[in-house]
Specification:
single chain; Rossmann fold; five-stranded parallel beta sheet; 5 strands; elongated; WalR-like; DNA-binding; Sig_transdc_resp-reg_receiver
Length: 216
């Protein structure tokens, strides 16, 4: 009997592409596809069979991946959750793992890694990639390294973005330097702007200098 998989993703093209890929894998099949966490829970409540694995998008309308993972852990503890996201922010990764996810994959990963993640979750019960391990270790070590909370409650990756952004580099060049996608850099920018209560890059640089976060 193949391993059954449920997909919860509000992007229809992504969900369809994942379904096609999974159905090409031997020993795996797609049981259901949901548009968000609420739709997933509704379908599970009516299903005759529960999936072995849920591929869970983190950012979804109505009910996001964080809340959905918590509900799945409480209502269906036997289901294994693999988080899928475009977002590599530490706080999102740590929160998903704390909420019960057995692994966290970026949507830009290769099909071979995706297949390996499914295999290891079924065999070992979890999948910790090198990327995930690095993020978790960095998060665990952050308080000891810093010794105090950073101004504006920035985490280490947001501070790294801030320091690099206080330069003449374009956001695309910053993305290359941080080894992330331009979309992820856009996310860092929005979060840092919000935390620092600024509206422009110039305002961010001035606030950073004022608080001694960067030196020019």
């Amino acid at each position: 009997m193949p391993v059954s998989i449920a997909i919860a993703d509000d992007h229809h093209l992504v969900a369809a592409a994942l379904s096609d890929m999974i159905r090409k894998f031997e020993e795996y099949d797609v049981l259901l596809v949901a548009e968000n966490g609420r739709d997933l829970l509704d379908q599970l409540a009516l299903a005759n069979q529960l999936p072995d694995i849920v591929l869970l998008d983190v950012s979804m309308p109505e009910m996001d991946g964080f809340e959905t993972a918590l509900c799945l852990r409480q209502l269906y503890p036997a289901i294994k959750v693999l988080a899928l996201s475009m977002d590599d922010r530490e706080e999102h990764i740590v929160k998903m793992i704390r909420n019960g996810a057995r692994g966290y994959l970026l949507k830009g990963c290769r099909p071979t890694e995706f297949r390996r993640a499914l295999d290891e979750i079924m065999i070992k019960g979890f999948y910790y990639s090198d990327f995930l391990t690095t993020q978790l270790i960095r998060n665990l070590n952050a308080p000891a390294e810093n010794g105090h909370n950073l101004p504006f409650n920035l985490n280490s990756r947001e501070l790294e973005f801030l320091k690099i952004a206080c330069s003449e580099l374009t956001y695309s060049e910053i993305a290359e330097k941080m080894f992330v996608s331009p979309r992820t850099v856009d996310g860092y920018r929005e979060v840092v702007f919000q935390k620092m209560n600024v509206k422009t890059r110039v305002g961010m640089v001035l606030e950073a200098m004022r608080h001694g976060l960067v030196e020019l």
